[in-house]
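thought: user wants a sequence for this fold. calling inverse folding tool.
action: design(structure=
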């Protein structure tokens, strides 16, 4: 019984050592994939920040246009009111 367990253990140990190269190759492949994904995430984050800046600028311009339109409407109302008097 002990001989069987020892033989099986030795066989498993040798098999595990034989697969080390494949395991290292898989780890290298996964590391490369993680690095590529990290680069993509960084690129997307910078694009998102640029887009957020564009959105803020567009909102500011729209707010200013709305204020200008409101001021123009008030001036027109004042002109019309002065003609009615």
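)
observation: tool returned 85 residues.
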């Amino acid at each position: 019984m002990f001989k069987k367990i020892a033989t099986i253990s030795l066989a498993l140990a040798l098999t595990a050592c034989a697969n080390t190269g494949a395991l290292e190759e898989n780890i290298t492949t996964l590391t490369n994939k993680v690095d590529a994904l990290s680069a993509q995430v960084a690129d997307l984050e910078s694009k998102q920040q640029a887009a957020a800046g564009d959105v803020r600028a567009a909102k500011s311009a729209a707010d200013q246009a709305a204020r200008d339109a409101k001021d123009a409407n008030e001036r027109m109302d004042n002109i019309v009111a002065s003609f009615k008097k």
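thought: summarizing for user.
answer: Here is the designed sequence. The chain has two helices and no strands.
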